[in-house]
Amino acid sequence: MKRTLPAVEGGEPVRESALPFALPTIGEKEIAEVVETLKSGWLTVGPRTKRFEEMVAGYIGVMGAAALSSCTAGLHLGMIVLGVGEGDEVILPALNFIAGPNCAIHLGATPVLVDVDPETLSVTPEILAAAITERTKLVVPVHFGGRPIDIDGIMEVARSRGVAVLGDAAHAMGADYGERRVGSVADATSFSFYVTKGITTGEGGILTSPNADLAHRVGVLSLHGMSSGAWNRYSERGSWFYEVHEPGYKYNMSDLEAAIGIHQMEKVDEFRERREKIARVFDNGLRTEEAIRVPPWCDSNSHAWHLYPIRLRPDLLKIDRDAFVRSLGDEGIGASVHFIPIHYHGYYSKRLDYGRGSFPVTEAFFQQAVSLPIYPSMSDDDANDVVEAVRKLIDYYRK
Length: 399
Ligand SMILES: *Cc1c(COP(=O)(O)O)cnc(C)c1O
Hints:
This protein has 13 helices and 14 strands. By secondary structure, the protein is an alpha/beta fold. A 7-stranded mixed β-sheet has the order 1-9-8-5-4-2-3, sandwiched between helices. A 3-stranded antiparallel β-sheet has the order 12-13-14. β4 (about 135-140), α6 (about 150-160) and β5 form a beta-alpha-beta unit. α1 runs antiparallel to α8 (about 255-265). It starts with about 25 loop residues before the first helix and ends with a helix. Bound molecules: pyridoxal-5'-phosphate. Pyridoxal-5'-phosphate binds next to α3.
């Protein structure tokens, strides 16, 4: 077997110009709409935010949507409206971004961490059923990498035990469960429009719910809890009047962000299809490599393919994950790791009682996982370069 010298060992890199791990895909329409918004004089929450909310609600197929400053804001407000408070337990996967667990802590609740299924890397109905106690108020399953989860099974277990479901769909805009979109089934679902996510508003998020009243309450809480009751429009008092029935937060989206989002939403399916095509190139190029595992394909539902994490097999490779990520960088391929298990973070290792080894699937995945770049503006050549670089490193470092 021919072993080409990796760049990290002094060989020629696969690419001369580096391929970043993530890039937003911003078109002329987004730029023109932002300029229009600036010229309009209305920069904060207003007509464009409303239009964006309606677009997302229509796409997801729900009556309720509240555009917010981030997905984290949606997780925080979602927990509040689903009744999480002092002393409650909130079940979350250990393979997770820190946003969900932090929100539970802010509300005085206890994050109860669970391991994930090795195939989907998400919470299953069985995992949930085993973790529920009489103090459980809520479960926050993560659609890891944009892969749809068994939402019907999770809803059934949760409903039968009086537990609410708040989906963390930060990765999953555009994913579906067959006929229904992710975001239309759980009690509430929070999406992210952070710059690396499926579609972006720079910073932003949205909470969707089949329950319009719940989403409305989230909208009110996102603006200090200010509500100008419907009666007010017909009153003598005029538009300056508002009432506060519960203390809210400042978590609203602005029209400047929505200006970007409106045109990103127009391309949500196109973007997802492009990422799926790139995933197909990776799958075809890497599936037969014994020394790594590629993410399992997902046939029945559409996968948002926000992440494409390969897993290195330490028994077959002389290189560990950190060195592999560095070596890919030297080949001109940006890569990343998702996620550092929640209980490895300093605060959580002290606050919660989980030692190393508590979540074997999560922890093994963390040791082995390398997220490859996957975004709509990547060309087929870019995708082929990624395959070539991964194969080159595997060939050179094979045991
Ligand atoms: C990115 C991310 C979030 C947070 O999204 P923001 O919009 O930045 O608040 C939450 N959960 C997961 C799983 C994420 O990857």
